[in-house]
Amino acid sequence: MASKMLFRANEILESTHVPFWGKDAFQYFQSDILSEENPFPCILGVEGFKKDLLRFSFVTTPYNYQDIRNAASALREYIDTFKTIGRYTSFVLFFKPEHKERSMEEYETMFWDTLTFLHQIDQKKWPQDIPKDPKDPLWEFCFHGEPIFVVCNTPAHSLRKSRKSRGFMITFQPRWVFEGMTGDSKIGRHVQKVVRDRLKTYDDVSAHPELGWYGQQESREWKQYFLHDDNNYTTTGQCPFKLKRSEQHGRKKSLY
């Protein structure tokens, strides 16, 4: 029988399938997201956690083939069911904390390698309505036929506390979660205001200038996935994500 890979919050601490380091990382995450003294900025994540809409998985490292296959399996299981879970759902992938210290740049490389590895073993084709060129404002990372907004947290973050975690951690939010939520909508403006207000007190650095709305001509989704502590850090002009060869032909042309 295959080991259980996808967990609800109330299953983690008692499960024999979750390693001790995973339970520790989850408790660190839980204390952050449920803090009343210092409210976590991502109100959709907080609401999703309180309503038991988040799902979790634990693997050791993205640089082990079996581990990345396990991560892909858990993500596929989540994607097959996320629309039945609830609107503010997310999938949180924890990696085992390392004893060695890594730089922000090393974690950034690890992050993009992980997305590329997942894409390389994806069993479904890239959705036809999502551009394959990250320079297009409508590009989004896709897996198992679904566009997904991705957020990376690391132990190297210090000033941007909203991106700090006990170990390397990636959160996957299906684009479906944000349907109807734009800079022009009432709910979009409300969510943006609350998040920005909380960021002012939660982080020791101002909101990152790359944060923007999906589809806006000046916005690029990939630049929001991994944010450095330094707002002046120059993001590389080319997205590090590597499209597999079988998807490189017939790219949808950008409208911009």
Describe it for me?
This protein has 256 residues and is of the alpha+beta class. The protein contains 7 helices and 5 strands; from the N terminus they run αααβαβαβββαα. Strands 1-2-5-4-3 form a 5-stranded mixed sheet, with helices on both faces. β1 (54-59), α4 and β2 (90-95) form a beta-alpha-beta unit. The longest helix is centred in the first third of the chain and has 21 residues, at 65-85. The chain starts with 8 loop residues before the first helix and ends in a 31-residue tail after the last helix. The relative contact order is 0.15. Residues 251-256 have low confidence and may be disordered.
- Count the DSSP helices: 7
Which regions are unreliable across 5 or more consecutive residues at pLDDT < 50?
A: 251-256
Number of strands: 5
Helix and strand composition category: alpha+beta
The coarse overall form would be globular
- Going across the biggest sheet, name each strand in turn: 1-2-5-4-3
Percent in helix: 25-40%
Q: Supply Rg.
A: 17 Å
The portion of residues forming beta strands comes to: 5-15%
Query: What is the first-to-last residue Cα distance?
Result: 50 Å
Largest sheet: 5 strands, mixed
Q: Please state the oligomeric state of the protein chains shown.
A: single chain
Look at the structure and give the mean pLDDT. Answer: 93
Secondary-structure element pattern, one letter each: HHHEHEHEEEHH
Quick take:
The protein has seven helices and five strands; from the N terminus they run αααβαβαβββαα.
